[in-house]
Each structure stands twice: as C-alpha cells, then as structure tokens.
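Self-study notes.
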Amino acid sequence: MEKVGSAVKKIAYTPPSKRLSTLSPPQLSLIPLLSFASTLYTFATHLRRQLYRFNVLAQLRLPIPVISVGNLTWGGNGKTPMVEFLARSFSDAGILPLILTRGYGGADEAKMLQRQLQGTSAKIGVGSNRAAIAAGFLEQYGYVNYHGNLSSEEQFSEESIESLSYTSRIGVAILDDGMQHLSVRRDLEIVMVNAMMPWGNHQLLPLGPLREPLTALSRADIIVIHHADLVLERDIEALESTIREVKKTVPIFYTKMAPTHLFERGDVSSKIPLNGICNTIVLCISGIGSPNSFVQRIERMGPIHVDHLDFSDHHSFLLKDIEMVRRRLQALEAKFSAKPIVVVTEKDYDRAPEVFEHLKPYEVLVLCCRLRFVVHKGNTEVCFKRIISEHLKSGLSWKNIAPSN
C-alpha cells in the first residue's frame, strides 16, 4: 500500500507533459483509473457544495466566532502549526479557544496539539462530527462574546465582562483542516499553501493533489504561504501571481517552521539544543506531508551526513518498518564508523511514542518546531493578528446572520 501511495504522489506532482519521460510503466498504468476516480470526485465535490449553497444541507452557526484553517491540497501545508499558533495567541490574550479537529491518522495531530498547548486554556475536541463536538464543549464550558483583540490588552463585550469567570468560557472556535468541512459556518477562512509543492499537476484527487479547483481560493480571507524560507523568491512571486489571478485583494502572509530544540525519546521535558546534532550522522524518519522541509531543516543544523526514510502522511509505524530503519542505521554505522542518531518529527513521535523504543540502543531525538512569520512586503505577524481582530469584530452579530449562498 505504501508503494501505491508513493506512485500516486509521484503522478500528482508530475506535469502531464513530463509523464512519459518521468513515470515508470506501472505508474503510467495507474493514470486511467486515477483519472476516472478524479472525475467522480470532482462531480461529488461540486454537488456537495451546491447542496450547502442552496440550503439542502444545513450549516450550523455556532454562538461564537469560528476560524477555519485549511488548504486546497493534501498534507504538509502547515495547518496544524497555524492552529497551534492561533490557539496560543488567543489563550495568551485571555480568550479560551476551542480547537475542533477530525482526529485523522490516529489523531496524531490532536495528540501533538494537546502536548504543545499543555498549560494553556485551549480545549481540543476530536471527532469527525465537529458540529456535535462543538455543541458538547459549549454546553460543558459555556461561552462568551469578545471584540477579537489578540494583543495583551484584553477587550470583551459588556455581556462577557458581566458574566462569571469569562476566561473559563469558550470565546472562539478554530477548525483544524476546515476548508472543506462545510457543516460549520465560519467567520474567517485562512488558507495555507505549501511553497515547496503548491499545486502539483493542477488536477483534483486522486489524479492530482487538489481537494478543490484553484478557484476555491476566492473564499479565502487570508492566504498564508508556508515554508516560505525554503524556496526562491521567484517561486514566491509565481505563487502570488497565481493567487492574485483568483482573488486580487486577499492579504498574503508568509511563514516558516522555526526549530526550537530537540527532546529525547521518552522524555518530552528534556531540552537538547539544536547544535546537539552538529557533527553527527543523522537518519531522519518521517510520515508527514512535506518530508523534504523536515530534512532541509535538519541539514541546516550541521550534521556530517543526513539520510532519510520517508513514509506516507499519518503513517502508522509497524515492526517491519522499525526493522527497515534498523537496517539503514546499521549500514550508516558501518559506512561512517560512528553510531547514527535518529531524528523524528513531533507528529510522528506523538502518533505512537512506544514504537521508537524498539530502536534501542540507537538514540532517538524529536525535533520541536514552532510556526513563525517571515516578514515580506511589509506583512508581519502584527498585521496578521490585526486582520483577524477586524474580522471577528465585524462578526459579533453572527446570531442574526443566515447561511450565505
């Protein structure tokens, strides 16, 4: 199954004009089937959106502002890091955020968020029916209205100030991977774009990586180009040009993943400085949407040599995978006459930390990163937060707004 997934991904990121020269015969043989499935997917996606547009399927309006963080393609776009950034920002401002995530892939992203946001006021609801999950949390904790200020000066409505313990009541909901989750109305649509692999072959799933056509960018209130530090300026300009063709006035921001430290397998409280892997042999293991970004960041930390084994996004590591990793480690040890270090992502570790115990006596480290804004064309984190505040202020009368077409 892993081989099929790799073949599909290869097809999705190969331009049609280069298929014959780039793809193998088995990969080429998959294209007719993928093309037929893509046609069915396109029809189903369009039909579903029309059913919501004409109110055949109902959208739930929550009694609090809702921010959707989503994307147009499959993984590696920085959705979950953005959700963590938003939740922490709201919590720091005295506003209790509720994260609604579907819990796909063994709920690895939810587990990671729970660990990262420990000690904050954030609540995390996991489940495919996010409307029902939200209703349960709102009933349990209550909710308040606020004026959307993300600065240190907290501003709440008179109603919330008069309420009891407003900081223990939910003030905003954040939809993780919410762009295609149409059953919940949102006040703000943030769309994440992976600068390293943005649109692939421009085809819809499963022939290409797109969940919706590029015209869906017209629904975005904010677009964030992620991994902006790992591509050339001309690539950023090309991305911006494509986005502006769909929506000229949308604010565009730029982010990266900034490594902060490493921790040891089995001890999440340990903090190893990034130079701890300098002059070492490293094997990167990952089952994420954008493994190249992970490898590039490790290479910047100064190891002598970096090797990598890439698995599909949300991959559940089995004992046969661990045996493969062990064989690669033994080969590296024989080649360099030094014991290599395994480095994994937070998401992979949180998915199943016990799996990596089977790699003893090899050392396993977990790379911790946080989303950071890249200043570009005057757009900064402060500007980003200001736009969010303005949108949420204008949405304070949400209870009287009917679902739009």
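Second protein, same conventions, sequence then structure:
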Amino acid sequence: MWGFQCRPSSPLPDELEMFMQSSGEHGVIIMSFGTLFKALELNLLEISASAFARLPQKVVWRHAGPKPSTVRNNTLLLDWIPQNDLLGHPKTKLFITHGGTNGIYEAIHHGVPMLAIPLMLDQFENTVRLKAKGIAEVLELADLNVHTLTESVKNVLDENQPYKENMRKISSLYHDTPIKPMDSAIFWLEFVMRHKGAAHLRTESYKMPWFAYYNVDIVAFLWTFNFSYLTTDFLMFS
C-alpha cells in the first residue's frame, strides 16, 4: 500500500505558480531532501547552488538554512514546499531527492524522473532499485561536485536518454490497479476493526512457544549431536 499519500496535484499559490510559469520551455527542477535534511552542509549548499546557476531551468529548492552565496535568480529557496503539487505541475521536469520512500512514490505517481543522492539508511537500497528500473540517475555524495551535479541533471533531462520514457511506463503500471493505495489502506483498517483483530489472518507463529519460534530446540539438538560426534571421535583416536 505504498503511495497512499499520493494524490492529484492542487493549484499552487499565486507567487509559486508565477515562478513555475516563468521557466518557459526549459521547465522546473524540484529539489528536496525530506523532513530530516532541511539544510545541507555549507560546502554542499555552495556546490548545489553553483550547479543550478549553470542551468537554463528554474529550481524550487526546499532549504531551511543560510542562503548560499552562489545562488542565482533561477533558484527559489523555500522553508517548505507543496511537494506533491509541485511534482504534479506540468512544468516540472526533474526531481532531485535523497531517495526517501514518500518522495519516490510521489514522483512515480506524477511520472517525474529523478536524480537521487542517497544520504542514509534505506535510501541507498531505494536508489539502486530506481537506477535498475531506469527512472533515476544516482549520484553518490562522495562524488558530488559542481561538474558531476550539472552533468547528472543534464543527462536525466536529455531527450535522447530513456529516463522520461521509462518513468512514463512505470507510472502507468503504478496507476493500473483495481483499487487505489489509500482506498486499500482504509479497507484493510476497517476489515481488521470489523473482525475484532482479524485473528484468522495471523500466522501460526503466534501460537508457537518462544523456544520453537527462535529455533532454540533445533539449535540445541544440533549442538548436542555435534558435541557427541566430536566426543566419540576423540575417544576413538585417544
């Protein structure tokens, strides 16, 4: 039921809509690293701002910290962004993300290719899967500099590259379901409530004693068998 938070995009505030429309044919890049990374280290800020200054696209960047000295007029810094609504905007061309699950599914929902820069935990595995599907390019933090960031953005946006088409196919598969993720989540929550915990869906492991659940009996048997075997060998050759 991943993606239950995804929804059709809503109209943007007037000022943000004007910024999006001002991008012309080049479109807009959305950059956000989720709630845990509202601000990056200073050197990473300067790298990102310098790379964006080289691009013809406009950039909406979720950033709650000091303004980089290299930021230019094509980049809009905001403490908070309506991420789902921005990803669903027709001017949005690329999503730069850390690889968090919510952002990934919102991008897939709206069919926006990604540039992933994983930072921690499951983000590394998530981005490997995105790359394998051909819907994102992955840039390691250790390799991040002005040149690599600029070239990675250009590569994903290149019409000759398959990222956009691959994302269109993945997004189509995601939407082709008999029931939407939120409706599915609501149904199963109500199902469990109606059937007072839905005990019939629980696995048999709930009925197993703790030593069987953790295979303590099997480990004890194997240990005893091996110990007896080694003891017999020792006595035979003594």
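Instructor comment on the second fold: The longest strand covers residues 92-97.
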